[in-house]
Amino acid sequence: MNSILFKPSELTELKALVYKTCGINLHEGKLELLKSKVAKRMRLTQMNVQEYLSYLRSNEREVIEFIDTITTNHSFFYRENKSIEYIVKQLGCHPKREVKRFKVWCAACSTGDEPYTAAVQLKALGVTFSILATDISHSVLEIAQKGIYKNDKVKQVPLSILHRYFQKGTGKYKGYLKIKKEIQQHITFKKYNLISDRIPGSDFDAVLCRNVMIYFNNQTSEAVVNKLYQSLGTDGFFAIGNAESLMNMKHPFKSVAGIPSLYIK
Fold first, then answer.
1. pLDDT at position 45, please?
2. What's the pLDDT at 155?
3. Domains in the chain, start-ordered, CATH in brackets?
4. CA-CA distance, 189 to 192, in Å (whole number)?
5. Helices 60-70, 138-146: inter-axial angle, 10-degree rounding
6. SS3 label, residue 131
7. What is d(CA 1, CA 158) in angstroms, rounded to the nearest whole number?
8. For 25-150, where are the alpha helices, taking DSSP H only?
9. Secondary structure of residue 98 in the 3-state scheme
């Protein structure tokens, strides 16, 4: 089963389906990975290649479950925190901080580490805020909504934040931590497709879209970047991953001096 022989037309169809659904560009270097992941989904669904491709054509959820297996949901708390820390600091000294409710959108939130990372820092600062956390994947959103993580995910969280906003697990949850409700109540998790769905607003103070464009080609990345630009209010911040770049794209963002991968509208 691990050794799948794709017909050229089947491989072309599979790549096109993934690209159409979420913009992920499966180049030839990903062929062996693609075969192994298809084999995994075929074992779970007990189908052959032709049956599985037919199933994918009519079942968007299965497309997304398949995409989950070929993307890396490697995240942890306070990952690449410099840009988030800068955004939080700027919101904290905003001239209207006493009367304003700041809105943040984590546009590819994965298992929730990123929105919770932003939330605990905003909470510690004492500002009023709400966070919209979205992802295309049902499975990572389910993990994010539960807010339960292994201890090794929070190694970079300052102890003062850890003690204040996390609950230590006991019994079967020994070795785990849970985000406290006072943080969870500020975050709304929703399914969202960066490629096909409309922006959920145009007045966000910050948008984080980090470590997802590494899977896109330049054309798709440019379209997503300009789409997210429209979701920001005046002087809103836009953060991408440290391994990503807006070079060779047409966009109206201005870079923030001294903070890699951070831009302002």
1. 83
2. 93
3. 8-70 (1.10.155), 81-264 (3.40.50.150)
4. 9
5. 70
6. strand
7. 46
8. 31-45, 49-58, 60-70, 81-92, 113-125, 138-146
9. coil
DSSP letter string over 51-64?
HHHHHHHH-HHHHH
Tokens 């929703």, located at residue:
190
**CB of 175 within 8 A of CB of 151?**
yes
Lowest-pLDDT range, 24-28, 44-48, 95-99? 24-28
123 is written with which tokens? 């909470």
Q: Which amino acid is at 122?
A: L
What is the structure's pLDDT at 1? 41
Task: Give the span between the Cα atoms of 209 and 194, in whole angstroms.
Answer: 10
261 in helix, strand or coil?
coil
Could you tell me the pTM of the whole model?
0.87
162 token code pair:
């850890």
CB 107 within 8 A of CB 81: no
- Residue whose pair of structure tokens reads 């939330």 in the numeric block: 119
Other beta carbons within 10 Å of 163? 10
CA neighbours closer than 13 Å in the CB half-sphere of residue 168: 6
Give the closest residue to 2 by CA, choosing from 38, 27, 30, 31. 38
> By CB neighbour count within 10 A (0-12 exposed, 13-18 middle, 19+ buried), where does 231 fall?
buried
User: For residue range 39-90, what is the model confidence (pLDDT) as tens digits?
Assistant: 888 888 888 888 888 888 888 788 877 777 776 667 899 999 999 999 999 9
Closest CA to 95 of 208, 201, 234: 234
